[in-house]
Specification:
With 155 residues, the protein is of the alpha/beta class. It is built from 5 helices and 5 strands; from the N terminus they run E-H-H-E-H-E-H-E-E-H. The structure holds ligand CA2.
Length: 155
């Protein structure tokens, strides 16, 4: 028999390439917390609002595209830190465009203040909004932003 759940639905958190290395290098830009630390914060924030959260990290664009496909119909929204794919991965853009619920783009750093190649986001046009530059707190802020969109939709 299926377990009863009071969950309002599942939020999918997706992480792009190299984010599995967080906490091991470049602490000046990305901080000392690990990806597991960020996922734990995102999950506790989601659960505090009555949602479940699943997470996947992929270093390959196709795997992220497939994760977006897999989220269709079974999730209420996506929070995604696409890593460097942010700046050129049009297949990821297209996959997110075909995903109906809201998408929140997330970055630890603020790409707008960094090298010019980071100024273009191909994800931004298919996201409801972007949280960037707040370090690890962004994982809480991004989930809260998504929950607020979902609550506004349900209102
Ligand atoms: O600020 C962010 O969250 C980024 O998405 C991080 C990406 C970067 O390409 C984006 O422009 C902004 C890079 C993630 C790489 O993470 C590393 C972590 C530790 C050591 C090396 C890379």
């Amino acid at each position: 028999m299926a377990e009863a759940t009071n969950s309002s639905g599942t939020i999918v958190l997706l992480s792009g390439p190299n984010l599995n290395l967080l906490g091991t290098r470049e602490p000046g830009i990305y901080g000392t917390a690990t990806l597991d630390d960020h996922v734990a914060l995102a999950r506790s924030t989601a659960e505090a609002h009555g949602f479940e959260l699943t997470h996947a990290q992929h270093n390959h664009e196709g795997a992220l595209v497939e994760a977006v496909h897999a989220a269709r119909g079974v999730s209420v929204g996506i929070v995604i830190n696409p890593g460097a794919f942010t700046h050129y991965a049009w297949a990821l853009h297209d996959a997110l465009a075909a995903y109906e619920p809201p998408v929140v783009e997330l970055h630890l750093s603020n790409p707008a203040t960094r090298e010019s190649f980071r100024h273009l986001s191909v994800v931004a046009p298919v996201a409801s909004g972007t949280i960037a530059g707040f370090g690890g707190a962004g994982y809480r802020l991004a989930v809260e932003a998504l929950v607020s969109l979902l609550e506004a939709e349900g209102a």
